[in-house]
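Handout, section B. The chain below has 194 residues.
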Amino acid sequence: MASTQTKEQIQSQDPAEWVDLYGDMLLRYALSRMRDRDLAEDLVQETFLVAWKNRKEFAGRSRFSTWLVAILRNKVADHFRREGRRKSSSLDESEGEPESEPLFSKWGKWKRSPKSWSASPAELVENREFWVVVAGCLGDMPAHLAYVLRLREFKSAKTKDICSLLEISSSNVSVRLHRARLLLRRCLEEKWFS
């Protein structure tokens, strides 16, 4: 079994065996974070390359699969960091911005009230169909916005942790969260609450 392999066995093992033993698990992990299968496969391949180059660094204090997932997690974060820099070189960008119609009046009041959400939050949590729609909404928004929203709302990551993971400012995190929440709200109003 792979989890009982020693450090020496791992370091002398053929990398093709790593792919056989851990490839599917790593691909599932990557696909759970990426919408693009080709990109997920590329990140898994990069993970194996980094692991092979640094196999002597594997200390054996954890399972080998844990070490591989940590490498992949860093690769995913690096991807979103690069993607975020490319897509949002400034806080003034409008890419990924929901419709330009202002939602608030000059006094800070809603221009139009949000649609009534008749179901209680407890009922929504229990409703699998709702979460399928949420996943679809997240899949429709720009990846760099969805990733920050997932980190904050589903992983309960703190702003400072998101900042250090993605190497962006707290202002940029706030802007991305705001934009993602607006996109999610509009999508849910259209696909769930209408």
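Note. The longest helix spans residues 64-87. Compare this with the example in section A.
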